[in-house]
Amino acid sequence: MLTEAKQFVNWAYLRNPSARTWKDYSYDLKLFMQIVGDKPVQEISIRDIDRFIEVQSERGAKPRTINRRVKTVSSLFSFLAAELQNLVNPVIPKRHLLRTPQRLPRPVPQVDQELFFGVIKDPRDKAIFTLMLRCGLRIAEVAGLKIENLYLKEAKPRMQVFGKNAKERTVYLSSQALTLLKAYLAVRPVVEDGHVFLSYQLKGLSTTAIHQHLVKYRDLACVKLTAHQFRHSFGCNLIQERVPLITVQKLMGHSWVQTTMNYVQVNDPEVEDDFFAATHRMEGWQG
């Protein structure tokens, strides 16, 4: 299946070169072939998927990681089905997808935000992490942002962002994010490369480079956080301010409103108000 795997990975790369999806697909399929062997796709069976899961579990892989890899194999077969009409997908969701604990969004505590940003002096890096925190951008969306995608002179400054699967959405800038982005653009070198954020080699920053900078700053600030937690903070802040769910979904670029609902579970102001109002009315609940 090596040839088919390469075709699939190449298709994923051409579909969205800036995303790391194709790299994940490549790694997952190489691991699959290491475990079950490089056999023709028509010969891959349900039992092969069982073995793929069992071996990973024995090696200590987490259910969420195993599920992602199994879904990659399933996506490969869906991709090949267009040409091989009699090909049967050996992945059976009810059998092969493991139960995983629901993980609710964990925003960055305010004190950690202040410590983190307090150690950043570089205008570029301050703008990068502010766009994650105040605009909800994913790390890949920051890396892929182009000058031509910025509309900063409009009455309501905005950006056009390309998210997962090259899905485009409009992202608006708060006054804080706009100020810091303009401060960086004022000192950004004038080069042919159209990426907003440049490396010291005057080329677009990679997601790996951005992550390395984050690790450097969080170590300096002595805090524990991830780039995606900034995005979680953005979503939680909007829900706390009672922004309508559909609006939050569009601003964050979620394909499914169920994903956005996770932020409601963490920060449902109505549930909070109802609970504390009830405790004030009930005897014995006040200290």
Q: SSE layout and pairings?
A:
Blueprint: H1 2-15, H2 21-36, H3 46-58, H4 63-80, H5 93-96, H6 110-118, H7 123-135, H8 139-144, E1 150-151, E2 158-162, E3 168-172, H9 175-187, H10 207-221, H11 227-240, H12 245-252, H13 257-266, H14 269-281
Antiparallel strand pairs: 1-2, 2-3
Helix pairs in contact: 1-2, 2-4, 6-10, 7-9, 7-11, 11-13, 12-13
Query: What is the CATH class of the largest domain?
Result: Mainly Alpha
* Arrangement of strands in the largest sheet: 1-2-3
Mean pLDDT across every amino acid position = 84
Could you tell me the strand content as a percent range?
under 5%
Please provide a written account of the structure.
It contains 14 helices and 3 strands. With about 290 residues, it is mainly α. It has 2 domains: about 100 residues, DNA polymerase, domain 1 (Orthogonal Bundle); about 160 residues, Intergrase catalytic core (hpI Integrase, Chain A, Orthogonal Bundle), CATH 1.10.443. The chain has a 3-stranded antiparallel β-sheet. The radius of gyration is 23 Å and the shape is globular.
Key words describing this protein structure:
hpI Integrase, Chain A; 287 residues; 3 strands; mainly alpha; 14 helices
